[in-house]
């Protein structure tokens, strides 16, 4: 992280601090003087947006926890109490509940960015893997949060998701009873999920530090996917990217605010405004939108163990991408075939999401099965084979040359 | 550490391994309470059995009671339902079980109302087999609660129960 900074504190307190804890030079090296490729586009602002999202969830979450009661008899009504009685409680809760969706919108864009520009490739494999771990923890955090509200979808979502672990041979049943602390989803489950819901975001914060630390060893990838060759290819992080990121965060806040103020329940499920009832499953249970593609994969296979296995594999596959992609060229800009398959994969993911929200019957089941097959086909067949058969376009000499050629041609860099 | 290290195991190696092994056993033993606290506690286990009056359940009707936090279906089956359940060829079943092995008295079908797929509560007297239909992922059960179609692997579970009198049943 450090090593890019000739930072010399000038004021006396700064000098005092620096000699005892060199944190100022660390931050200066990481967020001020850090040499950053000069051609990063707006897809690169989503890392900053994600940090903003995490901050928002932690801040609003700590406040909600001050008014929330983690007990089966009171959890649901304490959420209604937050909505009706607590000053600005409605605002804070709507920021938190929509914030989870915003977080996932940002992380999906961030991940697809990585897939398009080959940011997971050597030497950035570990950055990608840490990212996938963060993504898993985000899913856990969002799931726990959704459950503790104790509405109908909370309860039945919790039942279905915890039962997935029951499908594991041999240890499944023991694991279920460890998860539930009872014979079904009940008060002990609610209590432990609340504890974990509070914990996981801080684990995420720790992993974000590792993610950025690992990023700052090779530095950022860039839209051309070629290495930085020298100082002429970079600009300092501050002010160039601090300003660009801030602008992007402000735009994102507008989008976020639109949901919070004008359609705060659009992304949620109305059934979750009904208190949990353990004797009646809602007719149509679906997870939150950000988990739908996995849910579609689960349901497309009419066998408990294999369905759960396929869903698990769909997630584990993400860890393997750096080794499944055999092409050495990073950016899809120079990979004419991969570029098309990338977009096909995006469509496939969207289709899976759509199918996940539909009942598993008739055409939906058939499309769901095809889309599931294509998901695995993309990663296990197309990615490895493409690297061997595709002829990439010639790569530019350097970042600065490409930028200058473009501006000479009158186009924005 | 000198070159002699590569040859005979020394007293130091022995102590090193013995200390490490002790430490591992100790850590394991200490980990157990931290894991076991997650398991059902005594107050949860204490609620493990209930008694139900079934005199008011007419033929063709059913009630749902809660046992260990789970729904239990108590269905007073009709003669046709019993006949349909008994007529099924075991070879057609995913989890083969005779109807008579699933009931104590043929007219009373008592089962845990939890889909063996992922735990939703199936809806009664629905689906292609006249038994139960699970709205979550489409599992279908017959009039004996046996799985016939869909992703669930097993028949609806039968809890331990006894008829205390003709009209009272104790579950658990
Ligand atoms: C990674 C960050 C986080 C994510 C993705 C997340 C997600 C969620 C979600 C989806 C809900 C359900 C919203 C609803 O339908 O009402 C929720 C509720 C809740 N969260 Fe979080 N959360 C995060 C961080 C936190 C933190 C750090 C805390 C506490 C320190 C917290 C405390 C709560 C509380 C008390 C509730 C229940 C009240 C409510 O319904 O709003 N959350 N969270
Ligand atoms: S839970 Fe019943 S079919 Fe999945």
Q: State the distance separating the first and last CA atoms of chain B.
A: 65 Å
Q: Please mark out the parts of chain B with pLDDT under 50 across 5 or more consecutive residues, or reply none.
A: none
Q: What CATH architecture of the largest domain in chain A do you see?
A: Up-down Bundle
Here the CATH topology of the largest domain in chain B equals Rieske Iron-sulfur Protein
Net shape of chain B: elongated
Structure description:
Chain A is mainly alpha-helical and 413 residues long. Chain A contains 15 helices and two strands. Chain A has two domains: 31-282, Cytochrome Bc1 Complex, Chain C (Up-down Bundle); 286-398, Orthogonal Bundle (Helix Hairpins). In chain A, 66% of the residues lie in helices and 1% in strands. The longest helix of chain A has 29 residues, at 89-117. The longest helix of chain B has 26 residues, at 11-36. Chain B folds into two domains: 10-39; 45-171, Rieske Iron-sulfur Protein (3-layer Sandwich). Helices cover 23% and strands 24% of the residues of chain B. A four-stranded antiparallel beta sheet of chain B has the order 5-6-7-8, with no helix packed on it. Chain B has a three-stranded antiparallel beta sheet with strand order 1-10-9, with no helix packed on it. Chain B is built from three helices and ten strands. Chain B starts with 10 loop residues before the first helix and ends with a strand. At the A-B interface, helix 7, helix 8 and helix 12 of A face loops of B. Bound molecules: protoporphyrin IX containing FE and FE2/S2 (inorganic) cluster. Protoporphyrin IX containing FE is lined by residues 54, 57-58, 61-62, 64-65, 68, 79, 93, 96-97, 100, 103, 138, 141-142, 145-146, 148-149, 197-198, 201, 204, 268 of chain A.
Short description:
The complex is a heterodimer of chains A (413) and B (172). Chain A is 66% helix and 1% strand.
């Amino acid at each position: 992280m450090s090593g890019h900074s000739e930072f010399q504190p000038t004021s006396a307190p700064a000098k005092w601090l620096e000699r005892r804890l060199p944190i100022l030079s660390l931050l200066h090296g990481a967020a001020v003087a850090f040499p950053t490729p000069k051609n990063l586009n707006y897809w690169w602002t989503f890392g900053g947006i994600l940090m903003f999202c995490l901050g928002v969830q932690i801040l609003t979450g700590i406040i909600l926890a001050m008014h929330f009661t983690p007990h089966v008899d009171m959890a649901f009504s304490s959420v209604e109490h937050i909505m009706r009685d607590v000053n600005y409680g409605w605002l804070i809760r709507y920021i938190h509940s929509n914030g989870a969706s915003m977080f996932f919108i940002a992380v999906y864009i961030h991940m697809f960015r990585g897939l398009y520009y080959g940011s997971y490739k050597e030497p950035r494999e570990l950055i990608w893997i840490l990212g996938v771990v963060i993504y898993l923890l985000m899913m856990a955090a969002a799931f726990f949060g959704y459950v503790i509200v104790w509405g109908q979808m909370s309860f039945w979502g919790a039942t279905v998701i915890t039962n997935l672990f029951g499908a594991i041979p041999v240890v499944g049943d023991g694991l279920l009873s460890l998860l539930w602390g009872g014979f079904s989803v009940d008060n002990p489950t609610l209590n432990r999920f609340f504890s974990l819901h509070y914990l996981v975001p801080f684990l995420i914060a720790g992993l974000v530090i590792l993610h950025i630390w690992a990023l700052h060893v090779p530095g950022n990838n860039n839209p051309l996917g070629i290495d930085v060759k020298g100082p002429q290819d970079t600009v300092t992080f501050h002010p160039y990217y601090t300003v660009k990121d801030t602008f992007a965060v402000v735009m994102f806040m507008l989008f976020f605010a639109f949901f919070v103020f004008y359609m705060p329940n659009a992304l949620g499920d109305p059934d979750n405004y009904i208190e949990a009832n353990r004797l009646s499953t809602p007719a149509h249970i679906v997870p939150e939108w950000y988990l739908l593609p996995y849910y579609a994969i689960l349901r497309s296979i009419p066998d408990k163990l294999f369905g759960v296995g396929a869903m698990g594999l769909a997630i584990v596959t993400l860890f393997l991408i750096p080794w499944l992609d055999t092409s050495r060229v990073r950016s899809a800009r120079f990979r004419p075939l991969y570029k098309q398959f990338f977009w096909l994969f995006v469509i496939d993911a969207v289709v899976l999401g759509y199918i996940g929200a539909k009942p598993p019957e008739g055409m939906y089941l058939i499309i769901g099965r095809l889309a599931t097959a294509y998901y695995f086909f993309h990663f296990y067949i197309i990615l490895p084979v493409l690297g061997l058969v595709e002829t990439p376009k010639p790569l530019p000499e350097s970042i600065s040359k490409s930028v200058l050629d473009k501006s000479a041609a009158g186009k924005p860099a | 550490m000198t070159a002699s290290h590569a040859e005979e195991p020394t007293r130091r190696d022995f102590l090193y391994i013995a200390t490490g092994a002790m430490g591992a056993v100790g850590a394991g033993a200490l980990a157990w309470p931290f894991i076991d606290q997650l398991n059902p506690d005594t107050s949860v286990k204490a609620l493990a059995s209930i008694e139900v009056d079934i005199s008011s359940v007419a033929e063709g009707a059913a009630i749902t009671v809660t046992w260990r936090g789970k729904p239990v279906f108590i269905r007073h089956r009709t003669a046709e339902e019993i006949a349909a359940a008994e007529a099924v060829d075991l070879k057609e079943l995913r989890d083969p079980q005779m109807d008579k092995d699933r009931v104590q008295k043929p007219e009373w079908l008592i089962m845990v109302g939890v889909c063996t797929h992922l735990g939703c509560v199936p809806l009664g007297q629905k689906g292609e087999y006249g038994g139960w239909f699970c709205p979550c992922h489409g599992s279908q059960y017959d009039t004996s609660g046996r799985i016939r179609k869909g992703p669930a692997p097993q028949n609806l579970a039968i809890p331990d129960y006894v008829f205390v009198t003709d009209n009272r049943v104790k579950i658990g």
